[in-house]
Each structure stands twice: as C-alpha cells, then as structure tokens.
Amino acid sequence: MKFLTSTMRVLFTILMVLLKFSAFMIAMFAGAYLLAPMGTINSKNVDLSSFTSTPNEMMMVLFNSEYFSGYLFSVTIALVAFIAYLMWQLHEVAVHRAEENRSAHVQLVFALSLCGLFLHKAWWVLAIIIAFTNWRQIGIGMSDVIRRGYSWPSDHINTDTSLTER
C-alpha cells in the first residue's frame, strides 16, 4: 500500500510540473501572438554578405520573425515580474518569520519592513533582527540577572576595611 501511495504521489508531482510548464508555455506563446505586432523588424533586407560569419538561413528567418520578437518580449516581461516577486518575498521574510513564531511584534516588524522599503534599508535590517530574535530567551535571561541581583550573597561584599584604615 505504501508503494502505491508513494508512486501515486510521484506521478501527481510529475503531472503538476508538466501542467504548470504547459500553462507557462501557453502564456508565453499567447504573449508572443499578442505582442508580435509591436515587434517590427527593421533589418529584414540586410545583405548577409557584409557579415564575416554569416548565420544560416533558418536562423535568419527566426530572427526576422515578429512572433519570435514577441516571444522574447513576453519572456522578458515574465522574467522581470518573477524577479520582482522574488524581491518582494525576500523583503517580506521578516514579516513571515514573525507571523510564523506568533510574535507580538508582527505589526512593528511590518511597519519597519515598509519603512525599509520606502525610506532606508537600515529599518529593514532592524525588522529582520526583531523578527529572528528569540524574545522568550531574552526575557528569561533578563529575569535571571534581576533575580541574581536581589539574592546576592552577603559574603561576596567586600567588608575588608584594612585598606580604608590607612
């Protein structure tokens, strides 16, 4: 039964990857079709003998195609959008970490993250520090320091007055 379950999980994963890839390629080809009229090729009548290493005829047909130009344009748009998405995810890592830890500082981290986006990156660094700090351990450590200060043994106090009597 475990073999069947693991096999089905692998097949489902492969199917989802193929489905996502197909959807991406359909979107790219649709973008190429829609953006092709904007990709006017101005160098279709170039004399190929002016090149030292002439490209083959099939490559020139591909490079002179408006649909290829539209495809490159749609791929470029998709790449820029993906990079912007990754940058936003990187920028929001502090907020996600604070929410994951159920921190009381989520709103502060979000505000500092936005200040880091629009004002100065030092605010984003401060948001990262606040989000990744284990505040429970810091509270326990500070409580221990205060507790030790109140219960300081009296034998540690320097009562030797021989130095002050000179």
UniProtKB/TrEMBL annotation:
Keywords: Membrane, Transmembrane, Transmembrane helix. The chain crosses the membrane at residues 12-35, 68-88, 108-132. It comes from the Bacteria. This is Magnesium transporter.
